[in-house]
Every structure is written in C-alpha cells, then in structure tokens.
Amino acid sequence: MNFIYPVTLTPDTDGGFVVTFRDWPEAITQGETREGALAEAADCLEEAVAARIDDRAEIPLPSPQRADESTVAVPIATALKAALYLAVRETGIGTSELARRLGVHEKEARRLLDPRHGSKAAALERALLAVGRRLAVEVRAAA
To answer: Which CATH architecture has domain 4-73?
Structure first.
C-alpha cells in the first residue's frame, strides 16, 4: 500500500495556491506559498483519510503522478492506521477477531483502528502482521 497522492497546485487570483487531489474530491485546501500549500495539503489529506476511516468508506489508491502535479504523503501515523484499516477490511475480520489475534481486549483493537487515537508504531506493526501484512518503510527525496 502506498499513501503518497498527486496534488494540483493552482495559483489563486488573490495570491497563494489552491490545492486539490484527483483521488480525494472532498479534500481542498490552500496556502500562501508553494511550500505552505503542500504543508496544508498534508494536513488536509490526513483529515480526509481519517474521515473515510470514521465513515468506514473506501480509501482510494493513489493515481499515477502527472508531470504537472506534485505529491503529498499521508502523515506516517495516519498511513499506518489506514493500512491496518484496509487490511482488516480486505481480510473481512472484525475488531473482535483482530483483538483475539493480538491477544488484547477488543477496546484496544478498536483504538488501533481509530484514526484520532495515538497508537504506537510498534503496536500498529504488530497488528498488521496479525492480518498478514508486513510493514516496510521507503524514504524518498522531497519533491
């Protein structure tokens, strides 16, 4: 799973940039500078992912980046939650089964899936392993 999405920065007539995501029509933000707009885009994308998890909705895969687009990554904590959410959906298990596989109370399994709850990366990695996924990290040069 990859959580790096293409974005379009459109100059605003009042100054700054408007940021839109092809894959996230509900995610629109802006910033005064290009760098500021991309920082706002990361926050906006994080909120869009969290809202989709809360609504138990689909999380789209990133479209291929076009030459006129930049990219924005979902912040790491939210990306881990999204990966777990997608893996749990794909395997068709519920929070009770996730809790059983982890040997924890169901409340703790629900927290792992809650995008607003701060979970440790090690706990999320362990949960991903419990649903047959392995965490790998890739570091790229900034765009």
So the answer is: 2-Layer Sandwich (3.30)
